[in-house]
Amino acid sequence: MVSRSPRKFCRKISPPAFILNQKRPPDTPPKLNEVVHLVARLGGFLARKGDGELSVKIIWLGMQRILDFLAGVRELCITK
User: Where along the sequence do coiled-coil regions lie (predicted)?
Assistant: First the structure.
């Protein structure tokens, strides 16, 4: 379950979002806008100049990808 607090959201979601986007997580906590854009990129948002605003569907698809990744990691840790 995703937290309603922006800080908790960034703390929980940003590490897998950075990993799945093949970027190194920053030393300082990222801003909410940066994390949302990383999630959207996982959902198919290309972040081109004329692409416009993010849609709920794109963010939802990105969150699904992150949650699937976390479920896989959890499963690997349990089976060891």
Answer: none
